[in-house]
Amino acid sequence: MFASSALIRRIVLLATGLLCISCNSNSDTQQYTMKRFALTHDGIQREYYLFDPGDAKTTQRPLLIFLHGYGGTATGTESETTNGLNRYATSHGFAVIYPQGTWFRETISGTTNIVTSWNDLGGNRDEGPKGPLCSDDAPKYPCPAECGDCGRCGWTSCHDDLGFLQRLIDIAIDKHNADTSRIYVSGFSNGSMMAHRLACHASDKIAAAALVGGRLEKGMQCVPGNPTPLLQINGGKDLAVPYEGELPNSDFYYESATSVDFEWARANQCQEAEESWSIPVHAPSTLQCTARCAGEDKETINCLWSDGTHVWPGYPDNHGSGGYCVTSIQGPYMPGQPACVEADPDVDVWGSRLLFKFLQKHSL
Fold first, then answer.
1. What's the CA angle centered on 67, arms 297 and 161, to 5 degrees?
2. Where are the alpha helices (DSSP H) in the chain?
3. What is each CA distance from 251 to 135, 152, 217, in whole angstroms?
4. Which residue, 103, 167, 213, 217, shows the most beta carbons closer than 10 Å to its own?
């Protein structure tokens, strides 16, 4: 049933109390130290990792909630998916929370893999308002045992991730001194889909959202109740979550980037037509961006990286494992998971710089 090597590659592709459990470094560079926290939500122990460049006690800081992709980990997405996102957070004065999605182990063709995911309220369904969410011959994904039958198209968990993340926003304000006017959400792949959902449901607390390599499933689109600036970055050669939402041979179906841009702008009460947007960082000529209501607190920006695949923008395809690893601080809690490759400070990732350049412009 799960014997296909193509499925294994696809899995790899589609990346009550509060207690500081561990306060070790996530790399050999002490300036990028992260802390691990655990809490119980909906009867399940959950965890997240906090990076604060100044270990704020009295000074409020802007805070980014960043979500890993399918199969990824909280510390792996910081170290490998983004090549050290904390470096860029430091230069822009941001704290970052990396939540961990629920996970289980699955043995496929004799190989045991860790399976992590976010329940974005669309990825565990077979049908949506616009029809099926996957093709008839789409590969069947592993299903968490506690979720029962995930159906033909289901590939994410069934847990209350939306409630967990909304609770983290409150914790960030109450316990970690986050600036209530400067809380942001972003993620990659399945993490971007979850960020999409969270930004809709918590738009009264989120100052801006950035979706990278992921949008909600076809027909499952949501929009914010309050005007919320949006940045999208998607690869033109992304076969996992295509820019158009689906391709003739797609296994799973998503909303297109242009549809999300249009519907989000309408919810933001922005009636302007899209126009070319001046990219504020040095980026390749293959990155083209358009904007509606540019420079305003209701702007929507849609960027197409025409030669980009399903990777973090500007990061070499062949570096690291894409976040399916753990650093030393998370290793004891996911035994057997491979250790992450150290972030390469000589590689400057324009996608990370663009992310923070966009976020820092906006506040509630």
1. 100
2. 5-13, 74-76, 85-92, 161-175, 190-201, 257-267, 350-359
3. 5, 11, 12
4. 213
Concatenate the DSSP letters of all residues of 286-348 into one string.
Answer: TEEEEEESTTSTT-EEEEEETT--SS-TTS-TTSS-SS-SB-TTTGGGSTTPPBPPPP-TT--
Residue 58 to residue 277: CA distance in whole angstroms: 37
Is residue 81 classed as helix, strand or coil in its secondary structure?
A: helix
Task: Please write the tens of the pLDDT for every residue from 346-362.
Answer: 889 999 999 999 999 99
- For the chain, the straight-line distance linking the first and the last C-alpha, in angstroms and rounded, comes to 49
For residue 25, the 8-state DSSP code is B
Amino acid residing at 326: V
CA separation for the pair 189, 5 (Å, rounded):
21
Assess contact for 26 and 78: CB atoms under 8 A: yes
Per-residue pLDDT at 38:
97
User: Can you read off the two tokens belonging to residue 253?
Assistant: 């179906």
- Relative to beta strand 300-305, strand 287-292 is antiparallel
Residue from 48, 67, 10, 76 nearest 322 by CA? 76
Instruction: Report how far residue 20's alpha carbon sits from residue 105's, in angstroms, rounded to the nearest whole number.
Output: 26
pLDDT band at 57 (very low <50, low <70, confident <90, very high): low
Using an 8 Å Cβ cutoff, are 98 and 74 in contact? yes
DSSP element (H, E) containing 47: strand 44-51
CB atoms under 10 Å from CB of 116, counted, come to: 26
pLDDT band at 312 (very low <50, low <70, confident <90, very high): very high
> In the 8-state DSSP scheme, what is residue 252?
B
Please name the residues in contact with 93: beta carbons below 8 A apart, sequence gap of 6 or more: 53, 54, 61, 62
- The structure tokens listed for 229 are 């600036």
Per-residue burial over 293-318, b if 16 or more Cβ lie within 10 Å, else e, is: bbebebbbbbbbbeebebbbbbbeee
